[in-house]
Design goal:
The protein is of the alpha+beta class. The protein has three helices and six strands; from the N terminus they run ααββαββββ. The protein has one domain (3-121): Thiol Ester Dehydrase, Chain A (Roll). Helices cover 21% and strands 40% of the residues. Strands 1-2-4-5-6-3 form a six-stranded antiparallel sheet.
Length: 127
């Protein structure tokens, strides 16, 4: 799948203002700006929004040819209204069950969250 197809096809991410902004065989990135609709009861960005951002970045890394079968997230810094977030995903290991590491950061480079995921590759990635 192309970047455009992934952005259009992931309706949940699209409806939440999350866009895939770069993808190639080595890494992928997705971005979002924290809006009022992303805030939780504590007034900070909902963890699910951050997780969805990371998930779309991982989809870009695999060209949409893999599904997440397990994932964990560690939150390191709270995000507030107006913050610009960027998730960057890279492969830790390849194969039929690749592992991926995604770092979510603020525009100034502050690390917000780290997501590690195990994927199931449905088909080979085009090189």
């Amino acid at each position: 799948m192309t970047q455009e197809e992934l952005n259009e096809g992931d309706v949940f991410a699209r409806m939440n203002g999350i866009r895939l902004t770069a993808m190639n065989r080595l890494w992928a990135a997705a971005e979002m700006v924290v809006t009022e609709s992303h805030l939780n009861g504590a007034g900070v960005c909902q963890g699910g929004a951050i997780f969805t951002l990371a998930d779309l970045s991982q989809a870009g890394l695999t060209q949409g040819k893999a599904l997440t079968i397990g994932s964990s997230i560690e939150f390191l810094h709270a995000c507030k209204l107006g913050d610009h977030l960027r998730a960057v995903s890279k492969m830790d290991s390849d194969g039929k069950l690749p592992s991926v590491r995604t770092e979510v950061s603020l525009a100034d480079g502050t690390l917000v969250a780290v997501v590690t995921g195990r994927l199931y590759r449905k088909e080979p990635i085009v090189k």
